[in-house]
Amino acid sequence: MKTLKGKIRNTFTGIPLLGWLIGALMAVVLEHFFGDVLSDILGLPKIPVLFGFVIMLKKPLLIPGALGYVLLTYLIPVGVIAKVSAPVANRLAEKFFDLSLTLTVLLHLMFIYAILHLWSDVSAYRVLTLKLTLIAIMVTLSLNVVNGYMGEFSCSHPGFMALGAYAASTVTVVLFVNDKLFGPALLTPVLGPFMFPIALIIGGCVAALGALAIAVPSFRTRGDYLAIISLAFMFIVKSMIENLEVVGGPRGLSNQPDVANLPTVFMWTVACIWIINNFVRSTLGKALNAVRDDEMAANSMTVDTRRTKIIAFLFAAFWAGVAGGLFAHVLRYVNPGTFGLQKLAEVLAMVYFGGLNSVYGSIVGAVSLSLLGEALRPLEIFKWIFIPLLLILVMIFRPTGLIAFKEFNVKNLLKPKKRN
User: Fold this and answer.
1) HSE-CB for 74 with a 13 A CA cutoff
2) What separation in angstroms does the CA of 204 have from each of 67, 128, 171, 182?
3) DSSP H helical segments within 42-85, as ranges?
4) H or E element in which residue 311 lies
5) Which pLDDT score is estimated for 7?
6) Where are the domains of the chain?
7) Inter-residue contact 367 to 142 (CB < 8 Å)
8) Into which CATH architecture does domain 124-412 fall?
9) How far is it, in rounded angstroms, from Cα 262 to Cα 120?
10) Under a CB-based contact definition with an 8 Å cutoff, are residues 192 and 176 in contact?
């Protein structure tokens, strides 16, 4: 006899990714139009912002209503619509797949963005949570380049984020904002959204220059020196910004223009995933894996190990700086205290929870821990007991993370599915 798990798996065999996206899109459309009505019927005060977790933790008596809402709004519609639309989705995916992989990718990205936009449009809290989660994906991916693919242990990513955040913020505030600290704007604010990518790239380049100060002395040696120097670098950057009154000092820097909307953050996250995935699958990425596995053997096989590590480290720092620039403009305020040990612990947890040497793992780690942290917010201090215990269990039973050493193959992910 088939087990229940086997029956469920067989039921949903043959549904391509496009089918699941169609189901998710219809689910968020239903929530968009009927979410308020359904929440009233189930006795909920409002639409659950994070799949009912916050409501269930704040008011346990509403657990049945919250579970019912998630079941009726998400689980049943997604499963049923994905199953029903599977033949059409397979034909559509096959047609686009035969024409061009680029068209296939763009089609799926359009569905993903539509889902995220409609889901987050319910409340400003969802929008903020979604933006910060997308930024967390960028930071986790960039750190995984160093700690996963290169096999080193770096603690400097909060420092890179701080450099990128302050550099990008300084550019946009000086150019487009009438500010008490920097004076009148040099350019019209209308140009802000068009110049914002340049500000982010400047922030990334400043972070990469900071990384060079670590890479040059660190990669002359082997062992744990990078961890020690990078941790010191993080504290140096934090202390330096706190003592720079020109950027607000310990009070922080505010008044950033409102240019980091959801489409902007989404596009930068997609670009980050695509570029980092291509980087780790390139010749340089393979050399990086060789350095991680056996540096002496890689060196004997004509791999310039020091050059390879420096390039990868600067590349990772650049994307951390870009993520820091986005972070500052999403919150429209940045403070040096944000980029300390707590931020380091969060990013390291996402990397090792999701899985080393894996783009999939970084995405899963960033999304799951970001949403889990928000969902458990009503627990207050007890949240910081539950999450570390979860990480300890993962490290015991999955030492390399949930999805480690798995290649992100776009073709296999998007191709049509044939039913067995």
Assistant:
1) 13
2) 43, 22, 13, 22
3) 53-58, 63-70, 76-84
4) helix 305-331
5) 63
6) 4-103, 124-412
7) no
8) Orthogonal Bundle (1.10)
9) 9
10) yes
- In angstroms, rounded to a whole number, what is the distance separating the alpha carbons of residues 387 and 378? 14
- Joined together, the tokens standing for residue 257 give 């223009």
* Spatial separation of the C-alpha atoms in residues 350 and 368, rounded to whole Å: 8
The residue-averaged pLDDT of 327-352 equals 91
**Which residues is 179 bridged to in the sheet?**
183
pLDDT at residue 420, as a whole number: 47
Distance from C-alpha of 388 to C-alpha of 295, rounded to nearest angstrom: 33
Which DSSP category does 72 fall into? I
| Distances in whole angstroms, Cα of residue 167 to Cα of each of 2, 164, 200, 342 | 59, 5, 8, 22
Tokens (6 digits) for 165: 């955040």
Cα(241)–Cα(259) distance, integer angstroms: 24
User: Which residue in 347, 352, 390 sits closest to 370, CA to CA?
Assistant: 347
pLDDT value for 1: 43
Contact criterion met (CB below 8 Å) for 305 and 293: no
Q: pLDDT tens, 82-107?
A: 988 888 888 888 888 777 788 888 88
Integer CA distances (angstroms), 83 to 232, 256, 307, in order: 53, 46, 50
Residue-wise pLDDT for 252-287, tens only, equals 898 899 999 999 999 999 999 999 999 998 888 888
Rounded Cα–Cα distance for residues 160 and 154 (Å): 11
